[in-house]
């Protein structure tokens, strides 16, 4: 553990960004997995019980809540982002934008979205951070709220909650966004 942290830090200081230890990847993957499953469960339940309008309201309150509680549980800062966000709080920072663009290139190159992820040590203003992102595929079920045509009155509800919404016009098989995870390296 200590040894791998030292290697990471010395590589990062040498100006070459590297993969952190596999334990970070494993833990972050579990956190992402739990985030995805919990959110999906809540979304599908709301869709079934109350329809898409209620599901938007659920998503609006529950998505940030789940992110906050898992961030605390796993001691990672965990969230979702996209090149086209619905909630402006999910706007990507510079590093996330670069990684998302790299994911688009990888998709064009023929990679399966399910396998697209990236991690590295990043030198930030707050010190060294281990960061990871994992692509989120757009599925058929997402198109009700993220597709090219959103039915009324759902569109009106989305507009009310998210007047600056950019997260429409997607089709199945595209990258909708990514989970994003970071943890300070304690330097
Ligand atoms: C019932 C409507 C609805 C459905 C269905 C839906 N979403 Fe969303 N999605 C939302 C809302 C509302 C938000 C904003 C949540 C927030 O405020 O954090 C959102 C946000 C997101 C974000 C975070 C980035 C951003 O744009 O703010 C991602 C990623 C995302 N959705 C992916 C998906 C995927 C993948 C599916 C299908 C598995 C899906 N969504 C299905 C309504 C929906």
Keywords:
single chain; 187 residues; alpha+beta; Beta-Lactamase; 4-stranded antiparallel beta sheet; 4 strands; globular; disordered N terminus; binds heme C; Tll0287-like_dom; Cytochrome c-like protein
Concise overview:
The protein is of the alpha+beta class. It has helices spanning 2-13, 22-74, 94-108, 143-146, 154-161, and strands at residues 77-81, 117-124, 127-137, 175-184.
Verbal overview:
- The protein is an alpha+beta fold and about 190 residues long.
- The protein has one domain: Beta-Lactamase (2-Layer Sandwich).
- Helices cover about 50% and strands about 20% of the residues.
- The chain has helices spanning about 1-15, 20-75, 95-110, 145, 155-160, and strands spanning about 75-80, 115-125, 125-135, 175-185.
- A four-stranded antiparallel sheet has the order 1-4-3-2.
- Helix 2 packs across helix 5.
- It starts with a helix and ends with a strand.
- Mean pLDDT is about 90; it is low at about 1-20.
- It binds heme C.
- The site of heme C (HEC) has 25 residues, from helix 2, helix 4 and strand 4.
- Heme C binds near residues 136 and 144.
């Amino acid at each position: 553990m200590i040894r791998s942290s030292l290697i990471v830090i010395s590589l990062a200081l040498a100006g070459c960004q590297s993969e952190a230890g596999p334990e970070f990847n494993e833990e972050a993957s579990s956190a992402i997995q739990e985030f995805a499953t919990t959110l999906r469960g809540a979304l599908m339940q709301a869709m079934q019980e109350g329809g898409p309008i209620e599901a938007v309201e659920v998503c609006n309150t529950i998505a940030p809540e789940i992110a906050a509680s898992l961030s605390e549980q796993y001691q990672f800062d965990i969230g979702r982002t996209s090149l086209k966000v619905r909630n402006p709080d999910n706007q990507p920072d510079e590093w996330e934008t670069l990684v998302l663009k790299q994911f688009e290139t990888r998709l064009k190159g023929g990679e399966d979205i399910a396998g697209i992820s990236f991690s590295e040590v990043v030198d930030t203003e707050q010190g060294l951070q281990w960061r990871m992102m994992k692509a989120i595929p757009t599925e058929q079920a997402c198109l009700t709220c993220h597709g090219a045509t959103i039915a009324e009155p759902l569109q009106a509800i989305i507009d009310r909650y998210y007047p600056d919404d950019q997260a429409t016009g997607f089709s199945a098989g595209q990258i909708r966004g990514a989970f994003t995870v970071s943890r300070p390296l304690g330097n």
